Amino acid sequence: MFGEKMENSETMTEGMDEQTFEKRFYCTKEQFAKISTFTSERSASTTYIFCHESGAKQMKAMKDLKAMKIVNNNNNKCVLLSRVGINRKEKAPFKTQNEPYQQRETVQIGQVALPIGNAVGEPMIGTLDGYEQSEETAKEIFGAENVTVVRSGELRGNGPLLVADLSARLVDNMYDVKFQDLYVFQGDSQQGYTKRLNLAQTLVRVAEIFSSSANDISVLSVICKTVPIVGEQTLSQPTDRERRKGYDMSKGIAPLPIDIKTVDSLLANPK
Predict the structure, then answer these.
(1) Pairing status of strand 112-114 against strand 107-109
(2) What single-letter DSSP state applies at residue 233?
(3) What is the rounded average pLDDT for all residues in the chain?
């Protein structure tokens, strides 16, 4: 699996005990250390999962894999994280989402390092442009029939940024507790937000039951639409209050990832 590691992740997690680490990242420190580690020692039949949250990093990962020339047979599969809106980049809100990303200097605030300083270097490629190029490169490497594109909305919830309990309540509780359900659609036709934890469960399950018949799906936790003048409107309903009771992400009390049987049912019957 090749995915997103926070910049300065080692500094931000230094001294964190194993129990706290697993509550925040849903994996052990050893498992976390393996993310984004390329190796040529792979079996004849390998499924690659590329899940960078940045379109620029996803594109770089695909180009690096292509340069390594280690995918050389039709038994290799690819599950590729992408985004909704690639086919609507000139429309709101996707036009804004695709604005080039500007890297910034890291500023230390207490024990937390945040990228909020002066601009560094040239702006990176827009998120949607990066993902679009990643899709094209993946199909060149693996063949279109061996690539499944899993599109998310803007990612929310289970954020690794350990700023404060208040931040965790405002952001994580909103998406990890209030929006526990998942919606799966065929192709790139939707708009909304996706909960990281349920997206991760879906990516792994897609890899486990790889099917060339469902090679382009969108996975959303919150379905939205943008109306001229009015702006963004939410179409899906939040999780009912009974299912939300007892959770508090700021204290590490979080809902479990979506059930595998539910994921299988959604994947078998996308809307």
Answers:
(1) antiparallel
(2) E
(3) 82
